[in-house]
Amino acid sequence: MLLLALDTSTDAATACLARDGEVLAESMTRGRSTAAQRLLDDVHHLARAARISLDELDAVVAGTGPGTFTGLRIGLASARALGFGLGIPVHGVGTLDALLAGDGVEVFCKGAGIETCAVAPDRLAELLPEGAVVAGDGAIRYREQLAGAAIPPDGSPLHVPWARHHAALSALWGPPDPLYVRAPDADRSIAAGAAS
Fold first, then answer.
1. pTM over 0.90
2. What's the CATH number where 188 sits?
């Protein structure tokens, strides 16, 4: 099965072409608010590098988050558009599941004994077992609050939700619907302003 997998939920947009579990080509583009915008260009380059035509794809798998509203919408809309245009199925898989599949690390905020959630870094630190490995954007951003955890260096690939893991998690594929976990920042700002 030839798959295109995508994830645009974080500042690192990833894409991967994989055939029967073997990675043919993979990309990662960094840039807050810009990486997801380059996604289709990345896909074009991957197809050229792997010497395949997108018409050969059997399915598209997209990261469903949690993540930024705009990033998720760009990735999921791109996946759905490609699936529709090529007449192939589109599946979704959680970004946190892909991070966990990467190297078995505990990830903000899902892991052994922690359901997918959004919690304050201090609360997460209380939930983690001593020495747990924590990866992702939140681990980097809140390194001090998560002092009891093992956090890879900032440039480590463990912090990237590589699309190859989305492709490999077929048992978790579901609809390509976004998983926001918490209300959008705009809604929370409006609610805070109304409460004042």
1. no
2. 3.30.420.40
